[in-house]
Design brief:
alpha/beta; about 450 residues; 18 helices; single chain; globular; five-stranded mixed β-sheet
Length: about 450
């Protein structure tokens, strides 16, 4: 039998308002509250609430046969709490069924995994705490921002205590291998790696409403047939899509909710296909081989690389400037500074600076700017003001103790050096004395 793992990505960034050069140092109001509220409430009505209601109804009706997983960054949970708390409540109801798994990841949906290892570890820990507060779960499987993965990133995730990770089944890293099997990290084989089935995922998230597509219309029976026909010897298929697929990218009138409802029913009636959560997959299956990923991959674009976030000079400059602030952030105590640090790390700010055509898997994250350069200037103005605020901000109380310890250690070392110098001078004097053999 072959398992199907449904993974839903739930993410929206905190939108920034227009922030001019002359605003730097005068005020710290960075966020477009109207745009954030409008977008979240729209998505709640079109997607999150109806989709969650459908899943809850099916879970209750099917006596535990349906299993799904969600990746929801902590910043997105904050937006729900602020603008649509009923969405948070609906996720709590799903968590209480015991059939919904919430995945680890980065709290800010950040690029820290490729920019600053210490920030990555901090982000992952913040996200672990957010998931625990939401669901009571301790996540065992990690899904990084935009499914970014490499051997090194996987090893870091393993060191954090995770047992598995989900990434893109990119053709250039799989080669002749199939995404329908479990693999393991090349540096730390204890970390099991699940691969997103790119074609089946994109058939649903991108092509469902495309009447020029050869597979149109996509019915639940047809889709299940494709799953059955994908790698006959395959053990597990991971379908990973943006949750906005349901009701936002493809509106309700397209039949997307009816498709999901019917597909769930067909799988639970099947004798050869069943639903399985990521946690269950990594517990049940053994890896068939190592997967070697020297350079980071993602779910976006033909190249499946990082070029949509760090592919030009302005993105590189903004990313470098942001993570220059990572070390000072370790000693910051101001909650407003910490909140802004999380909000400013979101990968979307860098996506809006991309000079490439918008990648299809991210087609629902429309840029609010007229050009990538406008996005860059706006972001850098805010980042410069943020940097000025950090310079004025007090250090954590325990940082003073740390500094005092460093001063004391330095003083001890200076004293040791002076003692060594005195010993050298004494030996030189002794060597010059008559009868000393000098």
């Amino acid at each position: 039998m072959k398992s199907v793992t449904l993974v839903f990505l739930v993410h929206q960034p905190v939108r920034l308002k227009r922030y001019r050069f002359f605003d730097i140092g005068t005020h710290h109001d960075y966020y477009d509250d109207y745009a954030n509220e409008t977008l979240i409430r729209q998505l709640a009505a079109q997607c999150y609430l109806p989709a969650n209601s459908l899943l809850l109804r099916q879970i209750n009706r099917l006596n535990g046969q349906l299993k799904v997983a969600f990746a929801i960054p902590g910043v997105t949970l904050e937006l729900f709490e602020q603008y649509a708390p009923e969405v948070t409540d609906s996720f709590i109801l799903l968590a209480e069924t015991g059939n919904v798994e919430f995945l680890g990841g980065t709290y800010s949906h950040s690029l820290s995994s490729v920019a600053d290892p210490a920030s990555f570890a901090s982000e992952a820990e913040h996200q672990r705490q957010a998931i625990s507060r939401l669901s009571g779960q301790q996540p065992e499987v990690f899904l990084n921002t935009e499914m970014i993965y490499s051997d090194t990133i996987g090893a870091m995730v393993a060191d954090m205590g995770y047992k598995g990770m989900i990434t893109e089944g990119a053709r250039h890293i799989l080669g002749w291998k199939s995404p329908d099997f479990l693999y393991c990290n090349a540096i730390n084989p204890r970390l099991k790696v699940m691969m997103r089935h790119s074609k089946l995922s994109d058939d649903l998230s991108i092509r469902f409403s495309d009447n020029s597509w050869a597979g149109y219309p996509l019915t639940a029976d047809k889709y299940l047939g494709w799953i059955r026909g994908s790698e006959p010897a395959g053990e597990s298929i991971t379908i990973c899509v943006d949750y906005g697929t349901f009701g936002n990218v493809h509106p309700a009138k397209s039949g997307i909710f009816n498709f999901l409802d019917h597909f769930i029913f067909l799988v639970t009636q099947s004798q050869d296909v069943f639903f399985s959560s990521p946690r269950e997959v990594i517990a049940r299956l053994q890896p068939v081989s190592l997967i070697n990923v020297k350079h980071p991959v993602s779910l976006a674009g033909e190249e499946r690389d990082l070029s949509f976030w760090n592919g030009n000079d302005i993105q590189g400059e903004a990313l470098a400037k942001l993570y220059e602030l990572a070390l000072p952030m370790n000693h910051n105590v101001d909650p407003d500074i910490l909140k802004d640090w999380h909000y400013l790390q979101a990968s979307d700010h860098f996506l809006f600076m991309s000079t490439k055509a918008a990648p299809q898997p991210l087609h629902n994250r429309y840029s609010p700017y007229n050009s990538p350069f406008e996005a860059f200037i706006n972001y850098m103005n805010i980042l410069n003001d943020f940097s000025l605020r950090m310079d004025e901000n007090p250090l954590k109380p325990d940082c003073f103790e740390e500094l005092e310890n460093c001063r004391r250690l330095l003083k001890e070392k200076e004293q040791e050096i002076e003692e060594f110098r005195e010993e050298i001078r004494r030996l030189k004097r002794h060597k010059r004395l008559p009868g000393s053999g000098g």
